[in-house]
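Lecture notes, unit on protein representations.

Consider one protein chain, 98 amino acids long.
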Amino acid sequence: MVKHIILWRLKAENNTDGVKRGIKENLEGLKGVIPGLLEIKVQTERLDSSNADVMLYSVFESEQALKGYASHPEHVKAADNFVRPYTETRLCIDFEEG
């Protein structure tokens, strides 16, 4: 299995509940749509000790499935409309587990 974790910092003017809800609903809505995507969760609630605003945690059956997700039209649509316009920083780690 491949884990794909992203941390975003939102642009100050976009750090709203509505923006966070849009990111969460649209990315989590990809489950069952993209082949090989086993699990996806967007975390928008955080402790004050955090220095990121939103986290994506996703699990794929393989590295090939992760590559397919990256270019899948529904993922690109969600990212282009609900994520990229509102974020200023993105950190990503992908790794194989187990």
